[in-house]
């Protein structure tokens, strides 16, 4: 297992700190057998594209057998591949093909709940003395754990559902067809470890662990982030560390940074965790033309252990969640980014990056520039590198999960099937449709977003300070300018962003860097040497600069 090819610095156990991640759905990427659904064979045929883009690690959304009532997050068997995505051999072939190209792969570990179709639940509901009964959380009444919030507000009325078969209520934090596993039961913990081992033996490089705050329930609490939940996570990490060092665990905990901090433990829980609250604040700062929301959230983010890393993102397969903002901020975000109510779902906005930014290339570049230069490892969402659109009319969060647009031909190059057979329609409107927005045409246009994304990724890869460095904000009087220094060992990067849609000037206090020459990283041009006086930069609307500082 240890001898295989790995990207970046081979064998570096901290590889995830320098990695750029790419999130994709097998279903949506490329259909290799013409049945209208993406599959591993199709994905293999597109690995060179991903390599060319320059990403380091793929995050594959759930690929297991599932009734697909939550797009695969409702797992019916943890030990195999959904037949429409291919066979276990197809998966192995994919993993090898990715590794051969130096791409790592993390998969999805849905620990909190299973599908109600899972044989474990089917057995558990048979009778109250079934050996599997205690694998789930049951109750005779639906008034235990009162006050625990409901996450899927638009569809669920309660966290308890009645099981007519065994005549009891079962607990679920998400859809009612996703009963929560009972992690107080040691057999459940052991089984999750077996699941992990199974995929680690096959060679996956780690897991994105779904919905971690909700593993354990206790009366009188919010049933979130409980100490006993951390016990479970430490147990899994310890096993991983002992048997598979160098693999990575990434937590999905949609919480405030101070509540996510414990998921890193003393470096003995997760290697990585998503930083949820940064995400809406990038959009907010842009709309407000003010750096304040971003500076505030980053400055209130606690330090994390040396081996740990944040994951940051602009968009993903879910709604642009507005759980981690105040009520006023949420109103503002809805007002500015989802005036049309159909774009809203639960506490969020179901739209992709390009339409959220009104297709404005300058804003798309600026936000990607932030994503790739703020602390943490960036996660790109498939299709956003070409500025794909969405379809809010598809229900749930499906509008941001449409087929990848490869070319302007039949089904956008996604599949040879009849269009009616595609798992859901391609985007086909004149602005974002596959005829207008696709990989092929962007490959042929030197100034396309795709080429630009490749370039910025390449540039980020030339400096370790982005992934590993600390951050210090410079606070020029002009609050439309967001400027920071990223420093790692001897390397210092100066990043300056104009959040405004108008030209701006910023005077940066760089006294302590006097004598350094800022080298603009996209073109390599030297800028005037930093002196004693404030460093003056004039910036076009939504412009940003990355400079590497050079001392002669
Ligand atoms: C996570 C996933 C989301 C899913 C939910 C329930 O939040 O990101 O897509 O619906 O878990 O499994």
Structure description:
The protein is of the alpha/beta class and 552 residues long. It has 3 domains: 15-110 and 186-460, TIM Barrel (Alpha-Beta Barrel); 119-171, Oligo-1,6-glucosidase, Domain 2 (Oligo-1,6-glucosidase, domain 2, Alpha-Beta Complex); 468-550, Immunoglobulin-like (Sandwich), CATH 2.60.40.1180. 25% of the residues lie in helices and 17% in strands. The chain has 16 helices and 21 strands. The protein has helices at residues 26-29, 40-44, 47-53, 88-100, 119-124, 186-202, 227-243, 257-260, 278-288, 292-299, 327-337, 353-356, 361-371, 439-443, 449-460, 465-468, and strands at 21-24, 57-60, 104-110, 138-139, 160-163, 168-171, 206-210, 248-251, 272-274, 309-313, 320-321, 344-345, 348-349, 377-381, 470-474, 481-488, 491-498, 504-508, 517-520, 535-539, 544-550. The strands form 5 sheets. The protein has an 8-stranded parallel barrel. A 5-stranded antiparallel sheet has the order 15-16-17-21-19. Helix 6 (186-202) runs parallel beside helix 7 (227-243), helix 9 (278-288) packs antiparallel against helix 10 (292-299) and helix 9 (278-288) crosses helix 11. The longest helix is centred in the middle third of the chain and has 17 residues, at 186-202. The two termini are 45 Å apart. Residues 1-8 have low confidence and may be disordered.
